[in-house]
């Protein structure tokens, strides 16, 4: 890796990690080993490229050679990029009958630090002086809308008539923010060239139509600016990235690493993780502490896991309950210790303080002023975060507060399920059926893995997979009832029930497919157990996440595959169904089935681990309660002054 000679940023930079921008331009990171792009991301990219090509070919057929002008692809050398940009510029200025420029590249704008390659530019009009007006359009291999806001109308046009937009309803949600930010980048570039009209751009998503974004419409929440439009969001974030890059070139660091979901795909992920874990002991490594949530902690001088662990849990619980603890402590310091809190606190606060064992001004001396500084601040689960920090520092699983043991009922027949899907298409439902029989002090298990799978990528194949799975579950339940065996069906998180409900709706009326009511009824029964809340509300783990992979690895379960993960399985699936090499297809199908079989086996391993601990006769070998850590992490006080120190 070498530092770029010129700072040129694309639209993606405005919506990606600021620290990635810094590291890309900071001289001290020249020559470091970069992480490869994960296979799952490569598969998504390949899928996106295929979808983009399909859209381009279809659009060309719709408009014909006169209205659709295709810029030849380049080989990514500087010379070929320049030719592509020059070809785009020529059509921009003199379009003739051209309506769509496909595969466009705009000339880099070094004074504005911008470079950009919109998938398409659509001629939407002409200015008063005769200049063509263009709007950017990008192709995205996803839904055009995001979120759950109620369905409303958006300006939409068909590919055959791209500038004839009419208000239509697609689904719930609003145009995706990340798409709007990228369109705003191209709009600013066109604006500088003199070809832009109103702030507007289009997205061609999986729906196959152009959904037009009003880039000025205030739809998106910004953590500093409130609710703003995509263009304002872009302007703020792009200016921030340019400032970060320029400072990095001077050797100044305006940002530091934080851990978040996007990190898994970043080329700097190992570098940042090492800095966060080894050098910084950073709080964003705690589950649930996102960079946005961490801001409240930064503002109070809490940046490390150790500092978080040293906060006071009792004080934090009151803060979480909405008590103005800071004000109460200040008032108490001015009063006689015997003064009841009801005399100087708001009624609601006094009730909560008294219920928690802080009835007088003297009692409030037991609270921690540093933790009380969070009073009145919107902070996410402060008390729980303190417990997570303590467990992370100790490095051992603990029982959550109020939990004396994890109650997990085992039965004679247990089934664990896990689905594999690609872009929402369910092609595999794996089931591990375990027969458990107690022999003396031991439990003997007999397990069998069932795979309900389809590789033909058809709706009929998906419906068949679901129907065969459903028939299997009904049969096992009938067998258990007939022989008077206990039965449980386990899954991990909401993914399975949500997917099954969607399948029931999508394939309603097809042979063997249950109704939506039948699916809802099954998952409402006690025989169906979601292991995720069981493991994450009753236990606190010293892991950076609560995924099945993280927790199972903690109890020393291992996957046969060296790179297990849902993202990577997407790449395997792509090879399993699209490779022209039969050997590659078969190898990847085998890999997916083994991965799925290991996923359901991991759920069993976690239950077995919990059962062993619950049956231990020696108290010292059982899981300890997290409340035992209160004394260990109590804020320290100076021996001379009694002042609390951290």
Describe the structure.
The chain has 22 helices and 23 strands. An eight-stranded mixed beta sheet has the order 1-2-5-6-11-12-8-9, with helices on both faces. It folds into three domains: 37-215, no CATH class; 281-396, no CATH class; 413-623, 2-Layer Sandwich (Nucleotidyltransferase, domain 5), CATH 3.30.420. It has 646 residues and is of the alpha+beta class.
Itemize the secondary structure elements and their pairings:
Elements: H1 11-14, H2 18-25, H3 39-67, E1 68-70, H4 78-93, E2 100-102, E3 106-109, E4 114-116, E5 120-126, E6 132-139, E7 145-146, E8 153-157, E9 166-169, E10 174-175, H5 177-193, E11 200-204, E12 210-214, E13 220-222, E14 226-228, H6 230-249, H7 269-280, H8 291-298, H9 305-309, H10 313-320, H11 325-332, H12 347-355, H13 369-372, H14 382-394, E15 398-399, E16 413-422, E17 425-439, E18 442-453, H15 459-482, E19 487-491, H16 495-506, H17 516-524, E20 528-530, H18 531-537, E21 539-540, H19 548-554, H20 566-578, H21 582-614, H22 629-632, E22 636-637, E23 644-645
Parallel strand pairs: 1-2, 6-11, 16-19, 19-20
Antiparallel strand pairs: 2-5, 3-4, 5-6, 7-10, 8-9, 8-12, 11-12, 13-14, 15-21, 16-17, 17-18, 22-23
Helix pairs in contact: 2-6, 3-20, 5-6, 10-14, 16-17, 19-21, 20-21
């Amino acid at each position: 890796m070498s530092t770029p000679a010129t700072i040129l940023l694309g639209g993606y930079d405005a919506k990606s990690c600021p620290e990635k921008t810094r590291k890309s331009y900071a001289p001290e990171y020249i020559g470091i080993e970069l992480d490869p792009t994960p296979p799952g991301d490569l598969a998504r990219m390949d899928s996106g490229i295929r979808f983009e090509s399909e859209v381009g070919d279809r659009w060309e057929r719709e408009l014909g050679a006169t209205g659709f002008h295709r810029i030849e692809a380049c080989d990514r050398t500087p010379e070929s990029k320049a030719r592509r940009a020059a070809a785009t510029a020529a059509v921009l200025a003199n379009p003739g009958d051209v309506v769509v420029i496909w595969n466009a590249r705009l000339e880099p704008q070094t004074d504005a630090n911008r470079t950009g390659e919109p998938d398409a530019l659509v001629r939407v009009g002409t200015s008063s002086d005769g200049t063509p007006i263009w709007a950017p359009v990008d192709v995205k291999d996803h839904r055009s809308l995001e979120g759950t806001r109620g369905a409303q109308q958006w300006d939409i046009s068909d590919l055959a008539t791209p500038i004839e937009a009419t208000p239509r309803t697609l689904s719930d949600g609003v145009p995706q923010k990340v798409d709007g930010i990228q369109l705003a980048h191209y709009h600013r570039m066109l604006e500088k060239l003199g070809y832009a009209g109103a702030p507007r751009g289009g997205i061609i998503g999986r729906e196959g139509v152009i959904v037009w974004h009003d880039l000025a419409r205030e739809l998106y929440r910004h953590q500093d600016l409130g609710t703003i439009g995509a263009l304002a969001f872009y302007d703020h974030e792009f200016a921030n990235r340019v400032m970060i890059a320029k400072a990095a070139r001077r050797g100044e660091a305006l940002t530091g690493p934080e851990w978040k979901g996007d990190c898994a795909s970043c080329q700097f992920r190992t570098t940042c993780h090492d800095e966060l874990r080894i050098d910084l002991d950073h709080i964003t490594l705690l589950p649930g502490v996102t960079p946005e949530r961490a801001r409240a902690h930064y503002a109070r001088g809490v940046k490390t896991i150790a500092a978080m662990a040293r906060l006071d849990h009792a004080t934090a619980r009151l803060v979480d309950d909405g008590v103005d603890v800071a004000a109460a402590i200040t008032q108490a310091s001015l009063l006689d210790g015997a003064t009841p809190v009801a005399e100087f606190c708001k009624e609601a606060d006094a009730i909560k303080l008294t219920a928690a064992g802080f009835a007088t001004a003297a009692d409030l001396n037991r609270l921690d002023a540093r933790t009380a500084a969070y009073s009145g601040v919107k902070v996410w689960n402060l008390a729980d975060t303190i417990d997570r920090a303590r467990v992370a520092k100790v490095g051992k699983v603990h029982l959550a507060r109020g939990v004396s043991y994890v109650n997990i009922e085992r039965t004679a027949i247990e089934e664990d399920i896990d689905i594999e899907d690609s872009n929402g298409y369910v092609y595999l439902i794996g089931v591990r059926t375990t027969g458990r029989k107690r022999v003396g002090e031991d439990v003997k298990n007999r397990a069998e893995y069932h795979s309900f799978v389809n590789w033909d990528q058809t709706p009929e194949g998906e419906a068949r997979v679901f129907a065969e799975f459903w028939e299997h579950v009904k049969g096992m339940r009938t067998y258990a009832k007939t022989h008077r065996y206990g039965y449980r069906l386990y899954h991990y998180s909401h993914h399975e029930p949500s997917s099954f409900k969607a399948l029931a709706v999508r394939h309603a009326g097809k042979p063997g497919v249950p109704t939506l009511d039948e699916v809802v009824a099954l998952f409402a029964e006690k025989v169906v157990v979601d292991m995720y809340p069981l493991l994450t509300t009753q236990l606190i783990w010293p892991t950076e996440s609560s995924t099945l992979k993280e927790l199972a690895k903690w109890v020393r379960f291992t996957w046969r595959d060296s790179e297990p993960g849902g993202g990577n399985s997407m790449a395997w699936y792509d090879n399993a169904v699209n490779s022209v090499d039969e050997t590659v297809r078969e190898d990847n199908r085998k890999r997916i089935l083994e991965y799925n079989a290991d996923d359901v086996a991991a759920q069993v391993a976690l239950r077995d681990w919990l059962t062993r601990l619950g049956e231990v006769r020696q108290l010292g070998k059982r899981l300890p309660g997290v409340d035992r850590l209160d004394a260990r992490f109590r804020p320290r006080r100076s021996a001379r002054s009694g002042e609390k120190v951290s």
